[in-house]
């Protein structure tokens, strides 16, 4: 047995099916890392934007002025800004037409903000199901390659008269590489899926809290205007 065998040597000596399994796992690993990096950047940016907007929102600025400031870039809004924009826009529209029925104004405003919240959360969760899938199935794909490789090695071993460990060891080693690659793809996918999901949950909580606080402000304005 050649003690200098490398991972590349084991790959080249593997059967066609085991090679295919390894290539699939390598592709899944590369794709999952690309999504991990992209989602991490998106979620970190969302956290910064939410903090910056809430600082601006609670700075004492007039809500109408804040609405006018962000209206020019309404297509670029995300997170708390989008929830604020959709809520204030609907509030202003309903207040003009149904100002004497504040309950209807607040119901429509809340509905508009909930729609925006749902869209934001869906966008934040983009590609996370893929990471969950990679983490779930990669070990089984690798195990399939290992089982097939070991089976092939023992079938070949049965065809010779004198079997030695040196004859079967390379075949078993190359088969076990498939399991190692399955774990290599699965472990980071599972770790970052949990981490990124936790970030999405925290952001969703931030958005919901902001929505409730903003609703309280609009509620006071709607009923104050009705009493006047």
Automatic annotation (TrEMBL):
<comment type="similarity">
    <text>Belongs to the ExbB/TolQ family.</text>
</comment>
<dbReference type="Pfam" id="PF01618">
    <property type="entry name" value="MotA_ExbB"/>
</dbReference>
<keyword id="KW-0812">Transmembrane</keyword>
<keyword id="KW-0472">Membrane</keyword>
<keyword id="KW-1133">Transmembrane helix</keyword>
<feature type="transmembrane region" description="Helical">
    <location>
        <begin position="172"/>
        <end position="193"/>
    </location>
</feature>
<protein>
    <recommendedName>
        <fullName>Tol-Pal system protein TolQ</fullName>
    </recommendedName>
</protein>
<keyword id="KW-0132">Cell division</keyword>
<dbReference type="InterPro" id="IPR002898">
    <property type="entry name" value="MotA_ExbB_proton_chnl"/>
</dbReference>
<keyword id="KW-1003">Cell membrane</keyword>
<comment type="subunit">
    <text>The Tol-Pal system is composed of five core proteins: the inner membrane proteins TolA, TolQ and TolR, the periplasmic protein TolB and the outer membrane protein Pal. They form a network linking the inner and outer membranes and the peptidoglycan layer.</text>
</comment>
<feature type="transmembrane region" description="Helical">
    <location>
        <begin position="12"/>
        <end position="36"/>
    </location>
</feature>
<feature type="domain" description="MotA/TolQ/ExbB proton channel">
    <location>
        <begin position="79"/>
        <end position="206"/>
    </location>
</feature>
<dbReference type="GO" id="GO:0043213">
    <property type="term" value="P:bacteriocin transport"/>
</dbReference>
<keyword id="KW-0131">Cell cycle</keyword>
<dbReference type="GO" id="GO:0017038">
    <property type="term" value="P:protein import"/>
</dbReference>
<dbReference type="InterPro" id="IPR050790">
    <property type="entry name" value="ExbB/TolQ_transport"/>
</dbReference>
<keyword id="KW-0997">Cell inner membrane</keyword>
<comment type="function">
    <text>Part of the Tol-Pal system, which plays a role in outer membrane invagination during cell division and is important for maintaining outer membrane integrity.</text>
</comment>
<feature type="transmembrane region" description="Helical">
    <location>
        <begin position="140"/>
        <end position="160"/>
    </location>
</feature>
<dbReference type="InterPro" id="IPR014163">
    <property type="entry name" value="Tol-Pal_TolQ"/>
</dbReference>
<dbReference type="GO" id="GO:0051301">
    <property type="term" value="P:cell division"/>
</dbReference>
<dbReference type="GO" id="GO:0005886">
    <property type="term" value="C:plasma membrane"/>
</dbReference>
């Amino acid at each position: 047995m050649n003690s200098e065998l490398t991972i590349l040597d084991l790959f080249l000596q593997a059967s066609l099916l085991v090679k295919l399994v390894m290539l699939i796992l390598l592709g899944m690993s590369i794709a999952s890392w690309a999504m991990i990096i992209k989602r991490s950047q998106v979620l970190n940016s969302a956290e910064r934007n939410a903090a910056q907007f809430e600082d601006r929102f609670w700075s004492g600025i007039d809500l109408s002025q804040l609405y006018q400031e962000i209206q020019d870039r309404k297509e670029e809004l995300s997170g708390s800004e989008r929830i604020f924009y959709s809520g204030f826009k609907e509030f202003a529209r309903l207040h003009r037409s149904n100002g004497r029925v504040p309950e209807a104004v607040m119901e429509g405003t809340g509905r508009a903000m909930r729609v925006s919240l749902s869209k934001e959360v869906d966008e934040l969760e983009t590609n996370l199901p893929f990471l969950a899938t990679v983490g779930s199935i990669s070990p089984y794909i690798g195990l399939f390659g290992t089982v097939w490789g070991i089976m092939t090695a023992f079938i070949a071993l049965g065809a010779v008269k004198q079997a030695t460990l040196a004859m079967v060891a390379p075949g078993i080693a190359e088969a076990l590489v498939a399991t190692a690659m399955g774990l290599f793809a699965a472990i980071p996918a599972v770790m970052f899926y949990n981490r990124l999901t936790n970030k999405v949950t925290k952001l969703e909580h931030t958005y919901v809290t902001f929505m409730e606080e903003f609703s309280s402000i609009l509620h006071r304005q709607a009923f104050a205007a009705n009493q006047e």
